[in-house]
Amino acid sequence: MKKKPIIIKEIVHEWFGLTYSSYMVLPRTMLQSMPDNWQEKFIKLVDEMDDKLGHHNQVYSYTVLSKDKNNKFMKDDLRNYDRGRRILAP
Fold this sequence. Notes:
The chain starts with 10 loop residues before the first helix and ends in a 37-residue tail after the last helix. It has helices at residues 11-15, 28-32, 36-53. It is mainly alpha-helical and 90 residues long. The chain has a domain at 26-52 and 62-81. The protein has 3 helices and no strands. The radius of gyration is 17 Å and the shape is extended.
């Protein structure tokens, strides 16, 4: 019996565009500045992804360094999330 081919949608792949990025980094300050209902949806989706794919080997921690469009290191004004007290205005 033949296995059905897996059909892979490329929605996320296309969203990344022509970059070579393997990761998407989201500033915590921006996430916690979104409305509560948005944050709840986001967390549910992240939890769902972890439930389905979390068994794969994952690195425990990463270090993120900011670079500008010329690939030069730069100061990251969003690096300090201030333990949830920092909220950005829309």
